[in-house]
Design brief:
It contains 18 helices and no strands. The chain is mostly helical. The chain has three domains: 116 residues; 56 residues, no CATH class; 145 residues, no CATH class. α1 packs across α7, α2 packs across α4 and α11 packs across α13. The longest helix is centred in the N-terminal third of the chain and has 43 residues.
Length: 377
């Protein structure tokens, strides 16, 4: 027997999760049908003093099978008709139809209930994975290794393993940190053997965005905001968090729904999401900070696009301590000290306190010697 590949294990984990969601939806559909059948039986007993005999199971399955396939979502109908007691369920449906119930009206509503249950189960499974995305973000520094973990085909299986370890009382964060340090050493050894460097080059986004919007955040040196999905992965932000923070912004800006919907579409949105996730982790009142966007609408006018003004206003609303008027906290910031101590753009040194250099810039911000160039016209 061959050992399953990460892709195969991830596929199995996804398939199991999807199957569980569909099976739960089928349970809900069967419950609704059972309730409807119980109501039919009750009415028959009231009217006739006894229940009518059910139609033959085989006849019922053939008769209503096409209606079930037509009126229920395909995954729910296939699972329902694959159950061992499908003939009995078909008998109940046919009896309902014979009693005057319009299946074209009832089955779509049953389908809506089943889909709602299915999606709730799937969302719960997604939330469980989101929890481990947050653990990875909080435990490991930003960089290629963290990104590799979250983009690995085996990530769902890794998340499931972490959940099982936690259930057994294992400190998963310690395991992650130890594994990361070990892999980091292996990566450096391989890089040295190949004559290359394992440190990512600083991207243009990382250089241009260094400042109030990113100070204090644990960001990768090769941050790439041109690829939204990769940016979320680099920042270890889950899809669920992205949607939840967008909803919080929308709720914080009543009367400005159009602008609230615009903010998540801006290029810098992943950075704002990372900031909000950090604030929640530190126990800061995120909703109160976001409420400033509705109280101070100076972002409506000014230079640049409405999107850029919204980003700047959101960054200020999140960074400024509660009680400070707009602009106060920025005036108090010692820029040189902030740059020297910030973990931004140098996550591998996040756990160390580096002394400021003579120029007041963090070591990783020191300019490299300029290359020698020949003069040309």
């Amino acid at each position: 027997m061959t050992t399953p590949t990460p892709e195969e294990r991830a596929g199995e984990a996804f398939a199991e999760s999807a199957a569980e969601a569909v099976q739960t939806a089928v349970m809900a559909a069967r419950l609704v049908m059972a309730i409807a059948d119980a109501a039919r039986r009750h009415q028959k007993r009231k009217q006739k003093g006894k229940e009518d005999d059910l139609p033959a199971a085989e006849e019922a399955a053939n008769e209503v099978g096409k209606d079930v396939r037509r009126l229920l979502p395909s995954d729910v109908s296939m699972a329902l008709m694959g159950e061992a007691d499908w003939p009995q369920l078909a008998q109940q449906l046919l009896a309902l139809r014979d009693a005057g119930v319009d299946l074209d009206q009832v089955l779509p509503r049953v389908g809506e209930i089943a889909v709602n249950v299915r999606d709730q189960v799937a969302a719960k499974a997604s939330e469980a994975t989101d929890q481990w995305v947050r653990v990875v973000r909080e435990t490991l520094p930003a960089g290629p290794l963290r990104e590799a973990i979250l983009t690995s085909p085996g990530w769902p299986e890794m998340a499931a393993t972490m959940a099982r370890l936690e259930e057994k009382g294992v400190n998963v964060r310690e395991v992650l940190a130890a594994a990361h340090n070990e892999v980091l050493g292996v990566e450096q050894t391989v890089a040295n053997a190949l004559g290359s460097t394992s440190e990512a080059a600083m991207s243009r986004d990382a250089q241009l965005l260094y400042g109030p919007l990113t100070t204090g955040l644990n960001l990768p040196r090769d941050l790439d905001l041109s690829d939204r999905q990769r940016a979320f992965t680099q920042l270890a932000v889950s899809e669920g968090e992205h949607r939840r923070y967008a909803q919080l912004v929308w709720e914080a800006m009543p009367g400005h729904e159009r602008e609230a919907n615009l903010l998540p579409s801006t290029r810098q949105w992943p950075l704002l999401v990372a900031r909000m996730a950090q604030m929640e982790r530190e126990g800061k009142p995120l909703r109160e900070h976001l409420a400033r966007l509705a109280k101070d609408t100076s972002w409506k006018e000014g230079p640049g696009t409405i999107g850029s003004r919204l980003v700047q206003a959101a960054g200020d609303a999140l960074n400024r301590p509660l009680g400070d008027a707009p602009g106060e906290s920025r005036a108090k910031v010692n820029t040189a000290a902030a740059r020297a101590t910030s973990t931004s753009l140098d996550p591998t040194k996040a756990a160390k306190t580096a002394a400021p250099t003579e120029s007041g810039m963090a070591a990783h911000r020191q300019p490299a010697p300029a290359p020698t160039r020949s003069k040309s016209k």
